[in-house]
Amino acid sequence: MHPNPAFRSDDHALHQALVDEIGFGMIFATTPEGPRVAHTALLSTGDGAVQFHLSRGNALTRHLDGVTALAVVNGPDGYVSPRWYADQAQVPTWNYVALEMEGRVRRMDRDGLHGLLETLSARNEARLEGQAWTMDKMPAATLSRMMDSIAGFELEVVAWRPTFKLSQNKPADDRARVADGLAAAGSPALAALMRGIPA
User: Fold this and answer.
1) pLDDT tens, 12-22?
2) What Gene3D superfamilies does this protein's entry cite (predicted)?
3) How many angstroms separate the CA atoms of 44 and 66, rounded?
């Protein structure tokens, strides 16, 4: 989390929306073999937890149950050029959105894993055009074998550490120029977020 309090947000609904919208992140934990990270789809339960699944062969899988871990979701980001400021005697920086969630992890039972997979599939299939794919399209034996190869987990979030670094520490006219510059440089989502913060 960025140390400047100007870049923090206490808006829990915004945090949940970021997890839901991005839907993908990283799980970090310390293991006896050293620090490890896994990249995985994430599902917010809406009540302060995040669910995910990993391959049983993943370096984290056998260590996660009962440990404190960190889940991280990265939103849009982009380079900020000093030429976009009224006073260009400044340094380049990077604007970005990120959310760290710390909490205790518990391994899910098979029913919980099945529910996670169904919900993840339904949520993401709903974003696509056409008839949605559902898990009942798989033969039961095939689905069972695939579920045997993964493990489901739930991280109960005890600390939310968001960073919404969107040039809030700059004057409104500089923020507007930075948003325009980011949009022109190929970062329209970040520019839109900047334009949405209060002046």
Assistant:
1) 888 888 999 99
2) Electron Transport, Fmn-binding Protein, Chain A
3) 19
Q: How far apart are CA 83 and CA 81, in angstroms?
A: 5
Residue 57 backbone zone (phi > 0: left; psi -120 to 50: alpha; other: beta): alpha
What is the chain's length?
A: 199
The CATH number of domain 5-188, selected from 3.40.190.10, 2.30.110.10, 3.30.450.40, 1.10.600.10? 2.30.110.10
Task: Give CA–CA dist 47/79, Å, rounded.
Answer: 34
- Tell me the pLDDT band of 199, cut-offs 50, 70 and 90: low
Q: What is the pLDDT of residues 80-117, one digit of tens each?
A: 999 999 998 999 999 999 999 999 999 999 999 999 99
Neighbours of 181 (CB within 10 A): 18
Nearest-5° Cα angle at 35, 40 to 23: 15
Residue-wise pLDDT for 26-56, tens only, equals 999 999 999 999 999 999 998 999 999 999 9
- Please check whether residue 55 is in contact with residue 61, taking contact to mean a CB–CB distance below 8 angstroms: yes
CA distance 144 to 151: 12
